[in-house]
Amino acid sequence: MRYYIRANGKLSSVTISDTLSDYLIAKTAASLGDMKRARKAAQSWINDLAARSVVPDKNVSQWVQARIIDFIVDPAIVARRVAMIEKAEARRREIDERARRRALERA
Fold first, then answer.
1. Domains held by the chain: number
2. Please, which residues have CB within 8 angstroms of residue 21's CB and are 6 or more apart in sequence?
3. C-alpha neighbours within 13 Å on the C-beta side of residue 85
């Protein structure tokens, strides 16, 4: 489904999969009886997102999709994902540090 976002002074269209769009509509709409209003609620959420965020210059559709997923997913799962990413980054830094030390020892 196509939505519009005003970012960095210009209006752009973003494409969101129908399934993800349906989830966003289900989360943002007060009533699903009037789909036109329900879709406007989703568009309004995207407008608010753009107003309160720094929108990237490229890959805006992917960025919006990621923000939608963060919005609709259970906060406990989001927290677990953040912890998982932080752990992986710490492990990567540890491996990089070991490699740096080995390179210094060989020199």
1. 2
2. 1, 3, 42
3. 6
pTM: 0.72
Q: Do residue 68 and residue 78 come from a single domain?
A: no
Domain boundaries, position 95: 74-107
Question: Tens digit of pLDDT for each residue in 4-60?
Answer: 998 888 898 999 999 999 999 998 887 777 888 888 999 999 999 999 999 998 899
Q: Give tens-digit pLDDT for 59-99.
A: 999 999 999 999 999 889 988 988 999 999 999 999 999 99
Cα–Cα dist 93/9, whole Å: 38
Do 16 and 63 share a domain, yes or no?
yes
CA distance 49 to 94: 35
